[in-house]
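Cross-check.
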Amino acid sequence: MNRSFLLGYQLLIGIFDIATGALLVIAPEATLVLMGLHAPSNTLPFLSFIGAFVFSVGLACLYGAFLVACDPNPSRLETVWLLTAFARASVAIIVSEQLLVHALEPVWLAIAIFDSACVILQAIGFRKRWLSNVLDNTHRTGWRPRENRTRIS
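Predicted model, tokenized:
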């Protein structure tokens, strides 16, 4: 794991979740069509609520990207990873359970797989101390956010 990959991961999943969440809030039925999914029309208000949740997870991921870019303290990013992993694991478990009882169409498996993949990646990262290694390394090498750099004449 390197800093560029970590920043890219945080940005990618953050932007993806923010866009998905916002679309679910604004136009839940159209968003499901774009995703190749559908739900009964009486569930659309609940999908907007779920969209707000997805949006907030995306904001947390973008905050994680900000931390990668501007704060070499790994404990803050570890907190973001822990909380987003809990949310994603919950979604993966619920969607998987609903798939097993045939309450959701098989196409919903993509949601469970995506969230499970993020959880697994973050669990491996915790186990291998990626965040500490990447962020502590940038601290040891003298990396600082652009605005904190001093000019040497």
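The first helix runs from residue 3 to 26. The chain has one domain: 3-145. Passed to J.P. for a second look.
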